[in-house]
Amino acid sequence: MALAVMASSCATKKEAVPTVTLKTTTTPTGSTSTATVGKGKKDEIKKFGDLIGKTKADKGLFNTYNVDGKYYFEIPDSLYNREMLVVTRFVKTPTGLKSFGQQYGGEEVNDQVWKWERHDKQIFIRVPSYSVRADSTSDMYQSVQNSNLDAVLASFDIKAYNKDTTGVLIDVTDLYNGDVPAIGLPESIKKAYKIMSLDNSRSYIDTIKSFPINIETRTLKTYKAGDSPTDKTNGALTFELNTSMLLLPKTPMEPRLSDDRVGFFGQRQTDYGTDAQKAEVTSYIHRWRLEPKDVAAYERGELVEPKKQIVYYIDPATPKKWVPYLIAGINDWNKAFEAAGFKNAIVGKVAPTPEQDPEFSTEDARYSVLRYFASDVQNAYGPHISDPRSGEILESHVGWYHNVMSLLRNWFFIQTAAVNPSIRMAKFTDEQMGELIRFVSSHEIGHTLGLPHNFGSSYAYPVDSLRSKTFTDKHGTAPSIMDYARFNYIAQPGDGVTHLYPQIGEYDLWAIKWGYTYFPGHKTPKQEKEILDVWTKQKAGNPLYYYGRQGTSIDPRLQNEDLGDNAMKASTYGIANLKRILPNIEKWTYQKGEEYDDVQTLYNEVINQFNRYIGHVTMNIGGMNENFKTYDQKGPVYDFVSKSRQEDAMTFLKQQVFKTPLWLVNHEELGKFDNGVVISRIKAVQVNALNNVLNPSRMARMFDNQAKNGSKAYTVAEMLGDLRNGIFTKGNPDEYQRNLQRGYIESLNGLLNDEPNKSRPGASASQLANYGLTPINIELSDIRPMVRAELSKISATLPRGGDALTAAHYADLRLRIKEALSPTRPVINVDNGGQGRGFTDSATDNNMNW
Question: What pLDDT band is residue 122 in, cutting at 50, 70 and 90?
Answer without folding.
Answer: very high
